Amino acid sequence: MSDSDVPPGIDTSRMHPARRYDYLLGGKDNFEADRANAEMLTRAFPAARVAAMENRKFLRRAVSTLAREAGIRQFLDIGAGLPTSPNVHEVAQDIAPESRVVYVDNDPMVLAYARALLTGSEAGATAYVDADLRDPDKILNGQELWGTLDRSRPVALLLVAIMHFITDDMNPYGIVRRYVEAMPPGSYLVMSNGTLDALPPEKADALRAAFARSGEPAAPRTRAEFARFFDGLDLLDPGIVAAPDWRPDPGDDDRPGLADAAVHTAVARIP
Predict the structure, then answer these.
(1) 64-98: per-residue pLDDT in tens?
(2) Is residue 65 a contact partner of residue 57, using CB atoms and an 8 Å limit?
């Protein structure tokens, strides 16, 4: 992308995680600072692109599963990032055109692209909320959310590849609990979080150092730390697993392991 295409209010000289993720997924909505940062991480963790791709595949499979098998017709995607097809509304509305999806992010570039591209089906609805994950009251009390979603019906709460930017001093478990408690009964929590569990110590240290050089918060979590987000919830089979192992597509036998995917994933029903 050239600087002439940049929406107002965007600093292209600084890396942004959403644009870096876009680059790792093979997208074009990124700038030199994002690409340079992604390449730095890739030198420390050569499977970075694999991890990004597998995380995105998990999102698609989780949305499809909830739409097909659980009858979910409402989705709240917080920390949505830049539109990358297939997006949540495309997956859900392909199964049930009446599905309603709300995307939440706080990046001006994401906002501009979401409003232009995330249109959805005539039978359903899509909306975008400009807000920060760390301000759940603003999101949950906003008319944009409940003007699109129905408070009386279950919602799939998607926190995919976002909580590993919320460090322990930011109260991650309290933030997730606030969202979970606001969801109607019978809703679902869909989450993924980066992890260093399967990396040799020297590679884990190199990746931590790369995150530190990037100037962004990073909170890779162990399986036990990730499991805490699901306390009191009912995990769907197969429980907490690496991204490629959460209900893989039929015939997908040659899957990367946790050492390459580097992401814990799970889906749970909210009582």
Answers:
(1) 999 999 999 999 999 988 777 788 999 999 999 99
(2) no
**Backbone torsions φ then ψ of 60, nearest 5 degrees:** -60, -45
- Tell me how crowded residue 247 is: count the other CB atoms within 10 A of its CB: 16
Return the C-alpha torsion angle 129, 130, 133, 136, nearest 10: -60
Q: Please answer whether residues 159 and 191 qualify as being in contact, where contact means their C-beta atoms are separated by less than 8 angstroms.
A: yes
Question: Are 158 and 133 spatial neighbours (Cβ–Cβ below 8 Å)?
Answer: no
* Separation CA 109–CA 29 (nearest Å): 9
pTM: 0.92
Query: Which architecture, in CATH terms, is 3-269?
Result: 3-Layer(aba) Sandwich (3.40)
Listed in sequence order, the residues at least 6 apart from 48 whose beta carbon sits closer than 8 Å to its beta carbon are 24, 38, 41, 42
| Domain ranges, ordered by start, for the chain | 3-269
Q: Are 107 and 132 in contact (CB under 8 A)?
A: no
Written as six digits, the tokens of 90 are: 């495309």
